[in-house]
Amino acid sequence: MAETIRVQISAPFEIPGQDSAGWVQLPAGSRVSDLLRLARPPLALRLLPVVVNGKTAGRRQVLQDGDRVVFLLPMSGG
Fold first, then answer.
1. What is d(CA 22, CA 68) in angstroms, rounded to the nearest whole number?
2. Does CATH number 3.40.20.10 belong to domain 4-71?
3. Where residue 51 falls among pLDDT bands split at 50, 70, 90?
4. Are 55 and 29 in contact (CB under 8 A)?
5. pTM of the full structure
């Protein structure tokens, strides 16, 4: 089993170690909550919905190598 995984992140905040294509290396077994702990965004951004590989994900979801994680910003209009 791999000791680390790489996931691609799209987020409105910086994540330490993220490369220019959005990839970040994490320990195997990392969850969405671990990613948030690493990034340390402001509280309002920690509450954003998250999608992993196109499906809504909870904070406890375990990330897999190659996952694409997107933090969704609220939309406004009028």
1. 9
2. no
3. very high
4. no
5. 0.86
